[in-house]
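Box 4.2: Ligand-aware structure prediction
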Amino acid sequence: MSAPHILATGRCLPERVVTNEELNQRVDTSDEWVFSRTGIHQRHFCEEETGLDLAVSAARQAMDRAGATAADIGVCLVATFTPDHASPSTACLLQRELGLEEDTVCFDLNAACAGFLYGLKTAHALLSDTPRPCALVVGAEVISRVMDHTDRGTCVLFGDGAGAAVVRRDASRRWHAVFGTRGDPDSIRVQGPGPLPSAIHMDGRAVFRFAVEVVEQSIRQLLEREGLVSINDLDLVVCHQANARIIDFVAKRLGAREGLFFKNMDRYGNTSAASIPIALDELVQAGALRPGMRVLMVGFGGGLTWAGALLEW
Ligand code: ACO
C-alpha cells in the first residue's frame, strides 16, 4: 500500500488578462456566447513570459510551502503539450533553474489535459527508486502560442498558466487511479512539430460527448474502488477546467450536491495540463482543501486521453 501525498502546491498565471470583450475586438464573438457555452469570462495570455518562467515560479512556490529544498527533489516532471522547445525539455531547464541535483529524474510528459494526473502516477512510481523523498509535478502551458487567434471556435477557449505540486510517497496511505486512451487522431489535434503558426483543430461536439462519458465513468469506477455509494460521500471533485457545461452535466447525472464540483474556468479558461494543479492551489490557499479531505480529480483531453484519481489530502 502506498499513495502520493501532495505536501504543497503553487501556481503562476501570466500578468496579461484577456477578457471575452477584448477577444470580440479580434473575432466575431461575445461575452454572452462564450460564457453561456463554456463558463469562461477571461483567461491569461503570456506576453514576455515563457512556459519555463511559469513553471519555475509555480514550482518555487510549491517547494517553499512544502519546506522542500533542491536536495529533497528526486523526480521533476513537467506535463505539457506546449513546451518552449521540442528539446531540451522544460523539466531539464527547470532542474537548472531550481538547482536540482544531477541524479534527479527530469522529463516532460504529454498526456494533454490529463497530463497532471499522469505525472502524479509516474512520479509516485519513480519515487520508489530514488534516494530523495520528494517529486515535483508541474503542469505548464502556453497555449496562446499554438492557437489560431482568428479562429473564434477555439481562440476563446484556452489560457496560459502553470500549477505545481510537491509530492511524497506515503506507505501509510492508499489511493485509486484510472487511466485510458482511445487513440483518436482527429477530435483534438495541434499541428507540429514544425514552423509556426500552429493551430488547434477541435471537433467540439465530439469532445463534449467523449468528456461527459469518461468523466462520469471514471468517477463511478473510483467510487466503487473506494467502496463509496454516493458521490456526495466525497469532499471535493476537481475536474479539468475545460468547460463548465461538461462539469455541470456530469454533476447533475451523478446527483452531486451544489458546490461539490469546483469550477474556476471563468477566470483562467482551459489551461490544459495546468488546470488541475492551478485549481488545487486555489482551493488550498482559500482553505477549502484541507488535510483529511477526500478529493477526486479527473482530467481528459487530446488523444482522446483521460485519467482519474481519488486520494486523501
Ligand atoms: N462566438 C460566437 N459564435 C461562435 C463562436 C464564438 N466564439 N464559436 C463558434 N461559434 C458559432 C459557430 O460558427 C457556429 O455558427 P453556425 O451555426 O452559424 O455555423 C455556432 O456558433 C455553433 O458552433 P459549434 O462549434 O457547433 O458550437 P457548440 O455549440 O458546439 O459550442 C463548444 C462549441 C463550446 C466548443 C462546445 O462544442 C463544447 O463545449 N465542446 C466541449 C469540448 C471543449 O470544451 N473543448 C475545449 C478544449 S478540449 C479539452 O480540454 C478536452
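In the box above, the bound molecule is acetyl coenzyme *A. The first strand starts at residue 3 and ends at 12.
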